[in-house]
Amino acid sequence: MKKNPQQRIEELRGLIREHDHKYHVLAQPSITDFEYDQLINELIRLEKENPQLITPDSPTQRVGSDLTKEFKPVQHKIPMLSLSNTYSEEELYDFDRRIRESLPKNEIPEYVCELKIDGLSVSLRYINGKLNVAATRGDGTTGEEVTNNIKTIRAVPLIIKKPLSIKMKLAEFEVRGEVFMEVEAFNRLNEERELKCRILK
């Protein structure tokens, strides 16, 4: 029995999101690039035939020629603060003292130390599980909207489905982190650009 366009579109979106997660987040692709492209092309064709079914969170809306050139200001609901630098052992002990003083009596803090990744700080705001707006840190109070640019990063989900174990409603929440490019990916990008320049010459 042939599925109606809406059913097939939803099925394709689900499959593409699953494969994006496997490839870009888990680094465990389960289909070939050709098979992935076939899914994308079918979705593009069905959405062209049924434009009323296109939604902002569709995988086809990730990459396009409409990357943001002028950034609109975005007010952070909660300030995006930056980390302070510490240059001496004395300052570390002072930090620990302030933490302990802010905790209830007899509660002992635990610390996790890891290398700091210095990239572009961003805040991703999701409303009802869908990416609504992405913004840079800016001055901590006001940042710049980079939603369309962030959509080009396939490791960033456009839609988040709540696990069955979570009963609460995902009305609105923010995810904050650093956008960065690994050296390997950066070198690969430069090689591709160099190859394109040679072809154009």
Give a short synopsis of this structure.
By secondary structure, the chain is of the alpha+beta class.
Search tags:
201 residues, D-amino Acid Aminotransferase, Chain A, domain 1, single chain, 3-stranded antiparallel β-sheet, Helix Hairpins, 2 domains, 5 helices, 14% strand, alpha+beta, globular, 5 strands, two-stranded antiparallel sheet
The fold-level CATH name of the largest domain is D-amino Acid Aminotransferase, Chain A, domain 1
Strand order of the largest sheet: 3-2-5
- SSE succession: HHEHEEEHEH
**Strand residues, percent:** 5-15%
* Tally of domains: 2
Helix content: 25-40%
CATH architecture of the largest domain: 2-Layer Sandwich
Describe the structure.
This protein has 201 residues and is an alpha+beta fold. It folds into two domains: 61 residues, Orthogonal Bundle (Helix Hairpins); 137 residues, D-amino Acid Aminotransferase, Chain A, domain 1, CATH 3.30.470.30. Helices cover 37% and strands 14% of the residues. The strands form two sheets. A three-stranded antiparallel sheet has the order 3-2-5. β2 and β3 form a beta hairpin.
